[in-house]
Amino acid sequence: MAMDYSKNNEKILEVEDLVLSFKTDHGILKAVRNISFDLYKGETLCIVGESGSGKSVTSKAIMGILANNSIVEGGHIYYRGEDLLEVAEEEFHKIRGHKIGMIFQDPLSSLNPIVRIGKQITEATLINSNKLKLMYDDLISDDLIAYKNCLARGKHKADLVQNAYIKELVDFKKKYNGANGGLTNEEVNQKDALIKSSKDLKAKLDASNDEEEKKQINAELDGINAKIKEFDSLAAQRRSEQANERAQQNAELKAKKKEVNQQVKQIKAETLKQAAPLKEKLDQTKKEAKEKVKVYKNQVNEEYKAKVNEINASNLDENAKKEALAAAKLERINKLKITKAEAKRRALEIMKEVGIPEPEKRFKQYPFEFSGGMRQRIVIAIALTETPEILICDEPTTALDVTIQGQILELIKKIQRDRNLSIIFITHDLGVVANMADRVAVMYAGKIVEYGTSEEVFFNPKHPYTWALLSSIPDVDSKERLDAIPGTPPNMIYPPKGDAFALRSKYAMQIDFEEEPPFFKVSDTHYAATWLLHPNAPKVEMPKIVSERIANSLKAKKNGKEDR
Ligand SMILES: Nc1ncnc2c1ncn2[C@@H]1O[C@H](COP(=O)(O)OP(=O)(O)O)[C@@H](O)[C@H]1O
Ligand SMILES: [Mg+2]
Q1: From the CA of 498, how far away is ligand 1's center (Å)?
Q2: Stretch 207-219: mean pLDDT
Q3: pLDDT over 80 (residue 507)
Q4: Which amino acid residue places its CA nearest to atom 25 of ligand 1?
Q5: Is 107 in the pocket of ligand 1 (CB under 6 A)?
Q6: Residue 25 confidence class, pLDDT cut points 50, 70, 90
Q7: What are the residues whose beta carbon lies below 5 Å from ligand 2 (ion)?
Q8: Quick check: CB of 492 below 6 Å from ligand 1?
Q9: What torsion do the CA atoms of 359, 386, 404, 420 make, to the nearest 10 degrees?
Q10: Cβ atoms within 10 A of the Cβ of 517, count?
């Protein structure tokens, strides 16, 4: 889905065919299914979709902070030409937080409750305050990265091979072992539904005092339990029938494991071979860097000594001498490290930038002394101390009151303008998006189903899911939520075939249940994955609420008024 959003614009992040899953007790959960998008310098890309659609998982993958049970099944995340999925841990540390910052929904979870705000803001700066070390790191950085990346690429290759095997193993276990063994995905869903209604009925039974009603519930329960038992015996029967098949697949898996181990070994050997010359170069560079740092340090010390001698030899009076000596000392220190005073000065500046009044006083306070909105400002300040290029905001205002929400959104817009940041703004609330986005990607069940410029998605939406989201935005005047989206998102252990939204869509056609729709082009910048855009599809109008709203906001726009 290569897209030329703006030819003049620099692309700084490219997510390509990303596939992410999780190992769970119930099987492999497919959280992100082949998503691709780009981020351009200075733009805000909003990713919007219901809870569970894979938004946070995507941003965590970019930050390199996925949970331990995650499986990266494929894809790339290119940042300035480098694939973050292959990058070595060392370099990732440099990128994470430094070049790509992230703000989460709950500011408290990113703040330490028992450390003063000032210390939390200056922490990152002071950790890297040794200028000699920074100089050394900088000198060896290119060679270190080349070497580490070579190792990391090897590891990534090995991981992919192993992950593919692990996936097969989990599927195998799910099919033949455990409570669900022997049932098809659909049957498992049916059984789960039965178990759920049995639980609900039991709760109802406990709550009821009416003998007649109890009797009726008991009868219903008996029926449901019998059906659950039927599934269990069906599973048992299938399992015994499948015994041969299982033994054979087990043997195949064993053979495969051997093969995988062999492959991994080979990848490791190849990697070490490729890395050897890089390691040699790195060692040489380290030697040279040490020497350069030493020269610099000596020079600073020599200059200081010379200055001290000069002052002592001068005919200044005692007080002036003392002052000049102190100044020379400070100058020397500033050449060797970032001092606390310097870090504090920078922190106060950023606190002002993010709109924290009385920063001098606030600097000494603890998180509990701040309101929710102010805390989120602090979190933004901390992210900014590293001068990131990309800021990922994951539902940054969801936990805040509406008025505070607006203020934080304004702040994010302001720092973006001032710093020319690229922002990935994640939210479940399309209402927030209108004000923020240059472009919008709509996500459903681990896929992007529509993307385009903000205008295109708001005024010419094409996917029924986008229509549903648009119809559910509370009306700006009445604040009334118009149409809740019917049904619930699918269980991502068994993602539906075809268009995942079909089950909840009154516009679904037969093909939506069978085949996954490709992206159809609406304009150079606007694409939607819905069969409704196929030339042979019947002509379908978007829901009236949506078209009326669009007409109204276009009219308002024409009248030169803001749409609110
Ligand atoms: N560590 C995990 N283990 C298992 N499933 C997970 C894990 N993290 C997220 N998921 C699942 O991945 C899917 C996408 O989650 P997420 O990206 O958090 O959704 P959202 O769009 O609300 O941010 C959900 O089904 C969620 O339950
Ligand atoms: Mg989330």
Answers
A1: 21
A2: 89
A3: yes
A4: 52
A5: no
A6: confident
A7: 56
A8: yes
A9: 110
A10: 22
Q: Strand pairing partners for 78?
A: 14, 83
Ligand approaching nearest to the C-alpha of 50: 1
- Distance in angstroms (rounded) separating the CA atoms of residues 443 and 53: 6
Ligand 1, atom 14, residue with closest C-alpha: 54
CA-closest residue to ligand 1 atom 20:
52
Give me the chain's average pLDDT, please.
Answer: 89
* Range in 213-222, 362-371, 407-416, 457-466 the model is least confident about: 213-222
Q: Is the pLDDT of residue 501 over 80?
A: yes
Listed in sequence order, the residues at least 6 apart from 126 whose beta carbon sits closer than 8 Å to its beta carbon are 338, 340, 343
pTM metric for this prediction: 0.77
| Residue-wise DSSP of 158-214 | HHHHHHHHHHHHHHHHHHHSTTTTT--HHHHHHHHHHHHHHHHHHHHHHH---HHHH
**Element holding 391 (H helix, E strand):** strand 390-394
Quick check: CB of 24 below 6 Å from ligand 1? Answer: yes
> Which distant-in-sequence residues (6+ apart) come within 8 Å of 506 by Cβ?
464
φ, ψ of residue 80 in degrees (nearest 5): 50, 45
Ligand nearest to the CA of 493: 1
pLDDT above 60: residue 398: yes
Q: Is 490 in the pocket of ligand 1 (CB under 6 A)?
A: no
The response to whether residue 250 sits with its C-beta less than 6 Å from ligand 1 reads no
Q: Which of 146-150, 170-174, 544-548 holds the top average pLDDT? A: 544-548
Look at residue 523 and tell me whether its pLDDT is greater than 90: yes
Would you place residue 88 in the very low, low, confident or very high pLDDT band (cuts 50, 70, 90)? Answer: low
Query: Given the CA of residue 443, which atom of ligand 1 is nearest to it?
Result: 21
Cα 400 to Cα 413: distance, rounded to the nearest angstrom: 17
Which of 19, 20, 57 is the pocket-test mutation for ligand 1 (most atoms within 8 Å of CB)? 57
Q: What is the pLDDT of residue 2?
A: 37
